[in-house]
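Protocol step 4 of 5: obtain the predicted structure for the target chain.
Materials: sequence only (see below). No template structures provided, no constraints applied. The aim of this step is simply to have a reference model before the mutagenesis design in step 5. Sequence pasted as it appears in the construct record:
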Amino acid sequence: MRVGRKVKQKIVHHVGVAIDEHSEEKIKALAYELIAKFKMEEQEGQLSCIEPLSIEEEGKARSKQSKKRKAGRRSAKKLEDIASQIRAHKTAKR
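Step 4 output (structure tokens):
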């Protein structure tokens, strides 16, 4: 999909990983079959259960997801905290 001067792409279905040229040709053939199948289903209206998001809605959804995730490394745990968790776990088993 072209948005202004940029092209946006999305993976719809991962087909596989090729090890050699022979397997690459097999995967390409399967991919072309899947593309034809998806296009037929789209024309028949079978994909109507999935409502495509507009570009603005998709951008908003991604920004919400990125805000939820905390960037960076987890904070370091103290040895005392780990030891107390182990003790609490052992006493809960009894």
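Step 4 remarks: Residues 79 and 85 are 10 Å apart (CA to CA). The radius of gyration is 24 Å.
Proceed to step 5.
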